[in-house]
Structures are given as structure tokens and as C-alpha cells.
Design goal:
- The protein contains 4 helices and no strands.
- The protein has helices at about 5-30, 35-60, 90-105, 110-115.
């Protein structure tokens, strides 16, 4: 964009304000601060797991399997183990949908499940 556009000026100002914190973060990572490196690794695992889940949901939508047309009879409504890719696609779709319902309901187990990844 044009350097005179308000968005460009806002981004530049934000970068300038954030630079000291970013430099401090980089120095701490390069210094091998154990707790920070562990937290970064944990955050990276969560982001990766969510990316995979979002890709699965997008694919299921394209296949017109989201929401699942009819739940498979052998999938419990609380079964959210969509990561098991050895299951038939219909089962994975239902489990992912169950996970989505759990997330929308605000079930606190979601946060605990992501934190363990």
C-alpha cells in the first residue's frame, strides 16, 4: 500500500512500539531460557493441532460431510477423537463435529485437552 495510507502508518507505529519487546523476546530465546523455550514449543504444538483440525473441517465441508448427514450408530456423542485417522471418514466427521459442539458449549475439558498436546 501507499506509505501515506492510515493503515500503513498504524502498522509502522505498531512495529516501532513492539520492537523493544520483540528484541527482548529474541534475546531470551537465543539465551536458552528454558521456560520460554518450553512455552514456545507448547504454543507451536497447539497451533499445529488447530491447523490440522481446521483443515479437516474445511475438507469435510467441501465433501458435504459437515455437519454429518447422519451420525454413525457406533459413535458416542461425547467421542471427540477425530485425530484417529484409521477410522472411516464418516466416523472422523462425526467425532470432529462432536468436538465442535463441545467447543461451542464452553466445555472446560477443551482447554485441558489442548494444553496436554
Amino acid at each position: 500500500g501507499s506509505p501515506d495510507r492510515p493503515e500503513t502508518l498504524l502498522w509502522a507505529a505498531a512495529r516501532t512500539r513492539a520492537a523493544p519487546a520483540v528484541q527482548d523476546f529474541v534475546a531470551r530465546l537465543q539465551g536458552g531460557e528454558a521456560g520460554l523455550a518450553e512455552e514456545l514449543e507448547r504454543a507451536s504444538r497447539i497451533v499445529m493441532a488447530e491447523s490440522v483440525r481446521n483443515s479437516m473441517v474445511a475438507t469435510l465441508r467441501r465433501l458435504e460431510m459437515w455437519p454429518p448427514p447422519s451420525p454413525p450408530c457406533d459413535v458416542d456423542e461425547h467421542d471427540c477423537s477425530y485425530e484417529d485417522t484409521t477410522a472411516p471418514l464418516e466416523v472422523i466427521a462425526q467425532r470432529a463435529f462432536n468436538d465442535e459442539r463441545r467447543r461451542r458449549s464452553g466445555d472446560c475439558q477443551l482447554a485441558n485437552g489442548l494444553a496436554r498436546r
